[in-house]
Specification:
mainly alpha, 12 helices, globular
Length: about 375
């Protein structure tokens, strides 16, 4: 009987193993953390004092922190259990640039912890969290800003005319460090420690800006010579706003801490640079926002459905909010304040829509399945 039972167990078909929910969890999911965290960070930068707003920012910050911890855990499981898929992501030129989102998610949640979360977990704990996440996010961002282009040159097969705004993601991460690093400057001892961090942030600013200036013309050339992006990628046009708004935020925040860090003449020059750089870049950001918005309307009319790329609407808009708020602080013009408030309203709407659609997709299991191949046109 034992022999028969053993033989039957060998010949009986085994039950199919249920698909792992994290096998197809890519680094692009960090964009949801970034888009959520920027609501709290951008709201904190606005001069709005309506009752309940600060509490709402704290709730959003706590949600983004919970999302970050959950996603870091899930991605760790993904790397341990599905190493083949993780390596395939790195070898895919359309997926690898999303690793820049990891650094920006760490930085955004860290910055929100010090700006908003300190009223929840007290300032020493918030400072410790921000220092840890800023340091880790900066390290990951700088490594990614070098490693992803290296892979694109040496390992990826890049087809002519395939440049997309997604290529900017690993290059923007150091700019986020430059924008959020100034908040840590006052917590350092006066003198060289503060000056070193201030100038390090300017170096990160230059690193990201010059790399962006090298890649952005490729994206514009692709659009002009090859036409609109595929419908699912159309929201990524908003990613161009990221380096524009974040660089404006960076120079504004750096100028804000300069008086207590460097001599008066240098601080004055930094303040002037914040305005002379930020105003023209904000003008170009508004122009690009109009172009990208028109392309998105066109895509909606052509039947664009929800995809995780919709989170591309969120974080870049948030950087424009903080950039405009910084210009309002340095110029005293109410015009920039109203611009920041208007963009913030659009940001909150975009995050609410993307968040609801993402939650619905998770509940129905549509977002964690294997990506479907794009149908190819049939030749006559």
């Amino acid at each position: 009987m034992a022999t028969l039972a053993h033989a039957a167990s060998r010949t009986a078909p085994s039950a199919p193993r249920p698909p792992s929910p994290v096998r197809h969890l890519g680094p692009n999911w960090y964009a949801a953390v970034m888009g959520t965290a920027i609501v709290a960070n951008a709201g904190h930068a606005l001069p709005l004092t309506a009752p309940g707003l600060h509490t709402a920012y704290q709730v959003v910050w706590a949600l983004s922190a919970l999302m970050l911890v959950t996603l870091l855990t899930a991605r760790a499981v993904h790397w341990l259990r599905h190493t083949d898929q993780a390596r395939r992501h790195l070898q895919d030129p359309s997926v690898a640039p999303f690793y820049g989102c990891l650094a920006m998610a760490l930085l955004a949640v860290g910055g929100g912890t010090l700006a908003v979360g300190r009223d929840v977990i007290d300032e020493p704990a918030a400072l410790a969290v921000d220092v840890t996440l800023w340091s880790l996010g900066t390290l990951v961002g700088v490594v990614g800003a070098a490693a992803i282009p290296y892979l694109m040159v040496t390992r990826h097969r890049i087809e002519p005319g395939s440049a997309t705004p997604v290529w900017l993601l690993p290059l923007v991460a150091p700019m986020v460090s430059a924008a959020l690093g100034p908040a840590l400057v006052p917590h350092l001892p006066a003198g060289q420690p503060r000056q070193a961090l201030l100038l390090a942030c300017y170096a990160l600013f230059g690193m990201s800006l010059l790399a962006t200036l090298a890649v952005l013309p490729l994206v514009v050339s692709r659009l002009l010579h090859h036409g609109p992006l595929p419908l699912a990628l159309t929201p990524t046009l908003f990613l161009v706003l990221g380096p524009l708004g974040q660089s404006t935020t960076a120079v504004s925040n750096l100028a804000g801490v300069a008086p207590e860090t460097v001599d008066a003449a240098t601080a004055h020059a930094m303040s002037a640079f914040a305005v002379l750089y930020g105003v023209p870049v904000t003008g170009f950001a508004l122009l690009w926002l109009a172009i990208a918005g028109a392309m998105v309307v066109r895509a909606f009319r052509a039947g664009m459905g929800f995809a995780m790329t919709w989170w591309g609407f969120t974080f870049p808009l948030g950087t424009c909010v903080t950039g405009a708020a910084g210009l309002a602080a340095h110029t005293g013009l109410a015009l920039f304040t109203w611009l920041a408030v208007a963009l913030f309203a659009v940001l909150v709407t975009a995050v609410a829509v993307a968040g609801c659609r993402t939650a619905s997709g998770l509940v129905h299991g549509r977002l964690l399945t294997a990506p479907q191949p794009v149908p190819q046109p049939v030749k006559a």
